[in-house]
Amino acid sequence: MATLALGPSPARRDVLARRIRMLVAATITYNVIEAVGALTAGTLASSAALIGFGLDSIIEVSSAAAVAWQFSAREHALREAREHRALRIIAVSFFALAAYVAVDAARSLTGAGEASSSVPGIVLAALSLAVMPFLSAAQRRAGRELGSASAVADSRQTLLCTYLSAVVLAGLVLNATLGWTWADPIAALVIAAVAVKEGRDAWRGKGCCAPGRPAGACRTTDTTRKTKEKQ
Length: 231
Description:
By secondary structure, the chain is mainly α. About 80% of the residues lie in helices and about 0% in strands. It starts with 9 loop residues before the first helix and ends with a helix. It is built from seven helices and no strands.
């Protein structure tokens, strides 16, 4: 009995690949602007949170660039061959983000580097909180349908950036209005823990498939289709 083919058709794969390339380009462009703005505002306000936010944007650019490199290949087979290395780059970026946020949060909790208020930082964090969820959701949907672990992992990196935006925004607002300097580092430690988990999942190649499909199905879609074509 012939085995039913799973996954999108070749034409649909091309559409999804183009969509991912566009989303990754948008993510890189936005994060470059975000990094410059956050690092500038953080330096002016002596804000470790904003500086960390800017560094997170740089890490997000490296993650998105890894996916852009993978999907720069027009052939589906070459994109799959590049996926393992792209996943490792994304995983390392998660671990780097977790390490920095944890160290920065520890410094803040010990009273080092208290920041002054920053209106530009608040505006930038609020804008990121509004923009990043849409980029993350769109890339995650396309990545799951295509069966690309790296695209889904990068979308999680973008989603984590959204969480960090919320943490930074809350910390800046509470610092400016109530003087609660401890709120931001506590929440940042939670973000660091989530980043470690996401980095571990990316390293293992988890989370790549559409709902209901096992993790191994991502790499077997084309093999199954070829088997059917030969029968």
